[in-house]
Amino acid sequence: MDWVETTGKSLEEATKRALQILGVGASDADVEVLEEPKPGLFGRVKGEARVRARVRPNIPRPKRAGRQGGEGRKRSERSERPAKSEQSDKPRAPRNEARPPRAAQPKTSNKPSKEDTMAEGITLAEQAEIAKTFLTGLLEAMELTAEVSVREIDAETVELAINANPASELGILVGPRGTTLQALQEVTRTVVQAKSPGRTDRILVDVAQYRERRIAALARFGQQIAVEVVETGEERALEPMSPADRKAIHDGLTGVEGIVTRSEGEEPRRFVVIAPA
């Protein structure tokens, strides 16, 4: 990837901007200092810091030696094999000699097993009940007083909402930027899948309406960045986000004139780019 240059009031600020544009962490980038701010009178700083950075290139692994030699040995072995005409002539068995009967192969049944029948028959409501039982037991083990409610969003999606009064007690289930909540949702899905391997619908878990508030906050943030992109005419790369947060940004900017959005990078550092239309 080409080098990008950024400026800031300090080296840290300039470096942070460069990493945000590249969409990688400090360990995955090469950063060079082009200019440092100069100290002035009374502790003031003159000028700006300027750095350039790029994504650290991957160094290919050296090819394993001896592979070609192995192929050469195989070829030489093939060449040393005697031709059909040079092979020893062995008496052939007469064609009319009776051949041994073939072993009877067991017949496979096309009927579904009892386990498959049970898995296919589990309903969305039953999956929700399995998830609710798991979450209720988890709350009791953590000594948290909260209620778990079930809401069917559509024919293949169900949401389990955990609420308490006060809701601040449930912050431990959300975590920074919802990372703990995302893990809780994956564990809940795994529990449901273990009891319904043939069919598992979409299971969503929310705590204290965090997802709703998160989606609204991301939509407002995306609109602020979109205004800056329209005014400056320069695209902006946001920080790496989860698939759910990226979807919130894309959905929040749907229909906004003058900008387009796209996702770039690889998981888990995939990010959204807001660019002029």
TrEMBL record:
Annotated PROSITE patterns: R3H
Ranges of Basic and acidic residues composition bias in the record: 70-100
Domain R3H: 212-277
Region span, Disordered: 35-117
GO biological process: cell wall organization; regulation of cell shape
Alphabetic keyword roster: Cell shape, Cell wall biogenesis/degradation, Chaperone, Cytoplasm, RNA-binding
The keyword RNA-binding is annotated on this UniProt entry: yes
GO molecular function, one term: RNA binding
Pfam assignment, any one: R3H
Family matches, as PANTHER family: PROTEIN JAG, RNA-BINDING PROTEIN KHPB
Name of this protein: Unannotated protein
Originating species: freshwater metagenome
